[in-house]
């Protein structure tokens, strides 16, 4: 990777955004700046995985509301909250809502960088796992109802003949559906199809 990761900075204070941009960029991070939380949320569906660094007190959607909204979306992005008010109850609430950590302004540059590094390392495996699960779910969703039935028959261990008999269609037609299933699921073998079905929750371990 060319960078240590991506950081999304959300702060309504332009001077603070510029300062954080310089610090994080010089520390090897790819930085994207947002002047309010709504702009970030609007962009979120198209953003690559990264760490969110948000101020807690902002006009419109504040840091606490942002945490609630991202929690509701099951976002895998780790979130660090900044507060300039020494507001411990607010920071505790942020942690309860899923913030990885909080830090009070002014903070030491090294401490912020190490917190971001730790947040990304902890959250990245889960984020990748979630992305894979979503990809597999999309493959399953691309199947027609008949293809889904054929896939369920295959992963249950039924032969083409048995599946054909169950749905009263010819084994030759089942072969066509089977080929479609393997293509759409991007499975190179029946064992791979079974693993994908388990990952999609169609089969219990």
Automatic annotation (TrEMBL):
Listed SUPFAM superfamilies: C-terminal effector domain of the bipartite response regulators, CheY-like
Location of 4-aspartylphosphate modifications: 55
Superkingdom: Bacteria
Name recorded for this polypeptide: Nitrogen fixation protein FixJ
Pfam families: GerE, Response_reg
Domain HTH luxR-type: 136-201
GO biological process: phosphorelay signal transduction system; regulation of DNA-templated transcription
Domain Response regulatory span(s) in chain numbering: 6-120
Entry's transmembrane regions: none
PROSITE patterns: HTH_LUXR_1, HTH_LUXR_2, RESPONSE_REGULATORY
GO molecular function: DNA binding
Keywords, alphabetical: DNA-binding, Phosphoprotein, Transcription, Transcription regulation, Two-component regulatory system
InterPro entries linked to this entry: CheY-like_superfamily, Sig_transdc_resp-reg_C-effctor, Sig_transdc_resp-reg_receiver, Tscrpt_reg_LuxR_C, WH-like_DNA-bd_sf
